[in-house]
Amino acid sequence: MTLVLEQLLNGLQLGVTLFLLAAGLTLIFGIMGIINLAHGALYMVGAYAGALTAKATGSFLLAVPAGLAAAGLTGIIIEYIVIRRLYDRDHLDQVLATYGLILFLNELVTILFGRQPLFVGVPPALSGAVEIIPGVPYSVYRLTIIAVGLMLALGLFLLITRTRLGMLIRAGATHREMVRALGVDIRLLYTLVFGLGALLAGFAGVMAGPLLSVQVGMGEQILIMTFVVVVVGGVGSIKGAFFGALIVGIVDTLLRAFMPMLMRGLVTNTSEADALSAGLSSMGVYVLMALVLLVRPQGLFAARG
Amino acid sequence: MKRRDFLLASAAGAATMAAPSILRAQGAGAPVRIGFITTLSGPAGYLGQDIRDAFQLAIDSEGGKLGGVAVQAIVEDDALRPGQGKSIAERMLRNDGIRLFSGIVFSNVLGATAPDILDGGGIYVSPNAGPSNFAGRECHKNYFVISWQNDSLHESAGRSASELGYQNAFILSPNYQAGQDALAGFKRMFRGKIAGEQFTRLDQTDFAAEMAAIRAANPDVVFQFHPGGLGIAFLRQYQQAGLLGRIPMVVAAPSLDHTTLAAVGDAAVGVNVTSHWNVDFDNPQNQAFVAAFRAKYNRTPTYYASQGYDTALAIGAALRQTNGNIANQDAFRTAMLKADFKSLRGNFKFGPNQHPIQDWHALKVERNAAGQLELKTGKKVLENHGDSYAASCKL
């Protein structure tokens, strides 16, 4: 039982990280109509800036603003130089251009910092483990990620539902042309949304630094999963991104954790059971996505039908 | 329409991500050209980089030659994608007329690429991957492995774990050919029980679920095979999960090389490693290699680099005996199998399936006098060890 609870926490933590990325991706697509494949690269930029700052100053507290600044700045530069030219273009053009950005940023990072992964320590104040469930020590750092992520989700929810900017964002996600017709400076709104998405991705990158290895290509590994979240949750919906991320995070973690036991119960040949469970658990979230597309094609919490 | 656009574009995106990123080197006339297909991009990029750099170091130190024969390495990046490796090989074979190949890091890429090379009349000399399927019944007279057969890496870890007195092991590896070979190899030489066995994904970055499973199984040793960046994430999360001090770990060389050691830091202290090569081997050729590599590239070579260098030396030895004629493949093969070169590892010879017979050593991560972490070589775990598939290879 404690194992299930611990795995749920792990799933929650993965979900929260996915949410930070999916929120930006879904907003950028929902409002700007841009497929931003380079979103993962912003996550990488945040992680690198955070890791390098933490290394140079020894302070994780400084790494967070550094990561945010670097990702936000990169996002705004990308928006200004590349994305602006793509608003009226076909989605395939956007895919090509943002894919080009991935190659460019990955190669740039390789040239600047090499292929060797970077090391960031867990900040001393957050290292160690606490027993929130008796008998199961759980990493304080992972708990912090969950807490901060949930707070950010709440903040984002308030921003979207309670502020004027949020109102414009919601309006932009459902009736883009109408917002423009009403005289809203859509250019500025786009830049703000893109910058916000970049900040969230950068933050996810900084937070992931001490857990994963900070390396070239780390963004693409998580990006595919983020796309699944956006499809499951519904394009353009923050609420969808939130619940989609939690569902995908928890389903993925639980499948990986319990599929082997389940399969060994069902199939007698252990090596076959292992191969089967490894296959099924890595398929899991994609099957989930296919099911959602079948039953509710607009996504679980679509911004519009 | 919007959702459909998004799906279409995401699919296009996923497809483009699978598309090639090509680093094309210049191809030219007289020297013997070696098609060097390796993994240079992505998280595992440093593996291919080390192999390529050491291979090139061997060529450069002879002034553009190997064994007195002018050679040119034509390097391309497979990006860890089997399909990409295969299409590069086809192009090199058909359009460029290259007949000598090397460089592949990963067994899944090798599995897709090597058959095309061999069927197309090429020779393949592996500096790293040595999957079980090509070591046994499907062995080939033009296929040579300089590094190891995959299983033997992990057999040495299994033997080492038994010698250290562990009885109950939890074992993990990614679910691909080399990962399956790893678990099979470990189990073959480990005399204790297996407390649990889990496959991970080759693109996995978060191992929290596995950590919880390890804690629940409570083994007395953990064996894991996670090459490159995977290993870094695994070890650090192992430490963060509070398992490092509680459950000792035995791994084979790919899960802890000098690059991962630098990135992992304290999370690696006390980990038991087994390897066929280490920086501190004191034979003169190795000392010279480590010094030259550090001087040229300003970093410590990993064992991948040592294999890249040995591969160049092995090819050089064969080229010297055949005067650079690789068209006569039987003569090349006879020359190759003599293994007439001074391996950085010391003992080296080919077994009947053209895979190495060599010694395996126990290493341990320790802090040296200067306070830096290093891999320190201990005693020999296995001597003149080949692999268990050689018997079913009929050449």
Features:
heterodimer, A: 305 residues, mainly alpha, two-stranded antiparallel sheet, 11 helices, 2 strands, 75% helix, B: 395 residues, alpha/beta, Rossmann fold, eight-stranded mixed β-sheet, six-stranded mixed β-sheet, 12 helices, 14 strands, 21% strand, globular
Q: Name the poorly predicted regions of chain A.
A: none
What is the averaged pLDDT score of chain B?
89
SSE string of chain A: HHHHEEHHHHHHH
Structural class of chain B: alpha/beta
Largest sheet composition of chain A: 2 strands, antiparallel
What is the overall silhouette of chain A? Answer: globular
Number of domain modules of chain B: 2
How many distinct folded domains of chain A?
A: 1
Average residue pLDDT of chain A: 87
Give the amount of beta strand of chain A, in percent: under 5%
Biggest beta-sheet profile of chain B: 8 strands, mixed
Report on the structure:
The complex is a heterodimer of chains A (305) and B (395). Chain A has 305 residues and is mainly α. Chain A has one domain (2-217). Chain A is built from 11 helices and 2 strands. Chain A has a two-stranded antiparallel ribbon with strand order 1-2. In chain A, helix 2 (39-57) runs antiparallel to helix 3, helix 9 (218-233) packs across helix 10 (238-266) and helix 9 crosses helix 11 (270-295). Chain B has 395 residues and is α/β, with parallel strands linked by helices. Chain B folds into 2 domains: 12-148 and 282-350, Response regulator (Rossmann fold); 151-275 and 359-392, Rossmann fold (3-Layer(aba) Sandwich). Chain B has helices at 2-17, 45-61, 82-94, 107-119, 150-163, 177-189, 208-217, 229-240, 258-264, 284-297, 303-322, 329-337; strands at residues 32-38, 65-66, 69-77, 100-102, 123-126, 143-145, 168-174, 193-200, 221-224, 249-252, 272-275, 349-350, 356-367, 373-385. In chain B, the strands form 2 sheets. In chain B, strands 7, 8, 9, 10, 11, 12, 13 and 14 form an 8-stranded mixed β-sheet that branches. A 6-stranded mixed β-sheet of chain B has the order 2-3-1-4-5-6. In chain B, a hairpin with a 5-residue loop joins strand 13 and strand 14 (373-385). In chain B, helix 8 (229-240) runs parallel beside helix 9. Chain B is globular, with a radius of gyration of 21 Å. Mean pLDDT of chain B is 89; it is low at 19-29. The chains are: A mainly alpha (305), B alpha/beta (395). At the A-B interface, helix 1, helix 4, strand 2, helix 9 and helix 10 of A face helix 1, helix 2, strand 8, helix 7 and helix 8 of B.
